[in-house]
Amino acid sequence: MNEIIEKIKQSGLKGRGGANFPVGIKWEIFNATLANKKYVIMNAAEGEPDVFKDRYILENHLEETLKGFKLALDLFENTQGYIFLNKSLYDLLENKIRKFVNKWPVNLVKEKGGYLNGEETVLIESIEGHRLEPRIKPPYPPEKGLWQFPTLINNVETFYHVYQISQNQYHQTRFYSLTGDLNNIGVYELKEDSNILEILKQTKNLSEKPFFVQVGGGASGIFLEQENLDQPISGAGSLIVYDTNKTDKIKLLKKILSFFLKENCGQCVPCREGIYRLNELILKKSIDWLKAKELCQTLKESSFCGLGVGCGMACESLIDIIVKFNQANG
Ligand code: SF4
Question: Which is deepest, 59, 120, 308, 326, by most CB within 10 Å?
Answer without folding.
Answer: 308
